[in-house]
Amino acid sequence: DKRLSGTMELMSEGGLKERIIRVGKKLKHPHHSEDALLKDLEETTNCLAMVEQSDKYMIHSLMFQLIKPKIFWHEDVRVKIMVVTCIAEVTRVTTPNLPYSDDIMRDIFEHMVGSFQGLWNVTSPYYSKR
């Protein structure tokens, strides 16, 4: 089945690494459109969810794209939620080591708390990201 072989390729280390490189390049020069940026961040989340801790070397460049001011401090609440979701995955992959410096981690935790405060609406598509 062609679809199954495509999925297996994406799950293989080479296919996943290529996806991570591609999405990292997209985030290096983020879209002006929130919808396009959200699509890229969703792809980032999906890629990061497949990374094993033993493969953390794959995400080094990508993880620094997530903390660029244009992305990290974005005004749109949906973008903020997706960014902290991605950073949570980065933290999972790099555990027990911190992925960023202490100062950046402090900003991340403050940002996480602020991003999730407005997620009371259970019908929101971002509610499950809390």
List keywords for this structure.
0% strand, 7 helices, mainly alpha, 130 residues, globular, single chain
Could you walk me through the main structural features you see in this protein, from its secondary elements to its overall organization?
66% of the residues lie in helices and 0% in strands. It has 130 residues and is an all-alpha fold. Helix 2 runs antiparallel to helix 3 (34-50). It has one domain.
**Count of alpha and pi helical runs:** 7
Strand content: under 5%
Q: Give the termini separation.
A: 36 Å
Q: Label the overall shape.
A: globular
Summarize the helix and strand pattern as letters. Answer: HHHHHHH
Task: Report the C-alpha radius of gyration, rounded.
Answer: 15 Å
Number of strands: 0
How many structural units, i.e. domains?
1
Could you report the average pLDDT, rounded to the nearest whole number?
Answer: 84
Largest sheet: none
Class by alpha and beta content: mainly alpha
Low-confidence runs = 1-10
Helical proportion, percent range: 55-70%
